[in-house]
UniProtKB/TrEMBL annotation:
Enzyme Commission number(s) of this protein: 2.6.1.52
Pathway info: Amino-acid biosynthesis; L-serine biosynthesis; L-serine from 3-phospho-D-glycerate: step 2/3
Subcellular location: Cytoplasm
Pfam families cross-referenced by the UniProt entry: Aminotran_5
Top EC class for this record: transferase
Protein name: Phosphoserine aminotransferase
Gene source species: Acetonema longum DSM 6540
Cofactor details (free text): Binds 1 pyridoxal phosphate per subunit.
Protein family membership: Belongs to the class-V pyridoxal-phosphate-dependent aminotransferase family. SerC subfamily.
């Protein structure tokens, strides 16, 4: 079945097969990947290569670290302000959907915040323009959400605020396209969409920030704890890191981020074309210049047809198309691992469904 679910984990079949074999015997250790010690050489290699591969894909040098943290994107909503929003400073948030609202909510618990831009009033149909962003005076950092999983919008071009640290939640479009990672002081992404199974969150952090973590917050909530201990202060989520490592190697082998972007653009175009050429039968939620290449959201003329669409799609081998409850309608999540064939099959189904029902 083609899996259009928004998560967790959409993975290439080859990786699932390799993991299946290594679940019984990891590289002739005679032990399962689930059993080998996180202090053993074979696991250390996985861990170190994953950090190196991530930096290579993003073109980052020695002034960045890659950390493996648990707690999901949701814990990062709190860890970012805990570490980088000191008393007397203000953190700026750009709101582009429910996940950025949640990030703001956590920061509000911890300090002063300012909404530098929001498109909430327009149902989060678009990303604000750079002109709309009004920063506070010398904010501690600016936080954005690169891809809005629920609304189906995505930043095309990232802002640059000079010396002000830019921090991003990239949970739902990490490694789906090339971008200038050096613009960011901190990036976080729960693995469970483009990178691997749930259980590990990737944090990419510029090293100078590691000196700013306040010693007063609990050890496990400080980024410097992870950096100083190579993310092994406590037992890391070994299996998730192992799969992330395989995904990173798969990405590098298949042409890196430029090839992935081309693949993702082609795939999404099949579906957006159906929306645009449907004469209003399918109505996209996102404005065209804010459309996401990862999550494609649209409505049909009524909820009854939307229900029929989801049901018949399953019968046609297309799963997970029901939209998120707050937006409704249909959501096709087409992460890196979704094939062109899957998107072509969905486009053909959309065409047929429209002809039958309009
Ligand atoms: N940020 C974004 C953009 C998301 O899409 C999600 C979940 O879908 C989250 C954060 C929350 O992540 P987690 O479930 O890992 O806490």
């Amino acid at each position: 079945i083609f899996n259009f679910n928004a998560g967790p984990a959409v993975l290439p079949l080859d990786i699932l097969k390799q993991a299946q074999a290594e679940l019984l015997n990891y590289r002739d250790t005679g032990m399962s990947i689930l059993e080998i010690s996180h202090r053993s050489k074979p696991y250390e290699v996985i861990h170190q290569e994953a950090e190196a591969d991530m930096k290579a894909l993003l073109g980052l040098g020695d002034n960045y670290r890659v950390l493996f943290v648990q707690g999901g994107g949701s814990l990062q909503f709190a860890m970012v302000p805990m570490n980088y929003l000191p008393a007397g400073r203000i953190a700026d948030y750009i709101l582009t959907g429910s996940w950025s609202e949640k990030a703001l909510q956590e920061a509000k618990l911890l300090g002063q915040t300012h909404v530098a831009a929001t498109t909430a009033g327009e149902g989060y149909r678009r990303i604000p323009s750079l002109q709309e962003i009004k920063l506070s005076d010398k904010p501690a950092y600016v936080h954005i959400t690169s891809n809005n999983t629920i609304y189906g919008t995505q930043w095309r071009e990232f802002p640059n605020f000079g010396d002000i640290p830019l921090m991003a939640d990239m949970s739902s479009d990490m490694l789906s396209r090339p971008f200038d990672a050096k613009k960011f002081a901190l990036i976080y992404a729960g693995a469970q969409k483009n990178l691997g199974p749930a259980g590990v969150t990737i944090v990419i952090i510029r090293k100078d920030l590691l000196d700013e973590c306040p010693p007063t917050i609990p050890t496990m909530l400080r980024y410097d704890t992870y950096a100083k201990n190579d993310s092994m202060y406590n037992t890391p989520p070994c299996f998730s890191v192992y799969i992330v490592h395989l995904v990173l190697q798969w990405l590098r082998k298949n042409g890196g981020l430029a090839a992935m972007e081309k693949h993702n653009q082609e795939k999404a175009a099949f579906i957006y074309r159906q929306i645009d050429q449907s004469g209003g039968f399918y109505r996209g939620h996102a404005e065209p210049d804010s459309r996401s290449l990862m999550n494609i959201t649209f409505r049909l003329p009524n909820e009854e047809l939307e229900g029929a669409f989801v049901k018949e799609a399953v019968q046609a081998g297309l799963g997970g198309l029901k939209g998120y409850r707050t937006v409704g309608g249909i959501r096709a999540s087409v992460y890196n691992a979704m094939s062109k064939e899957g998107c072509l099959a969905l486009a053909a189904f959309m065409d047929e469904f429209r002809k039958k029902n309009s």
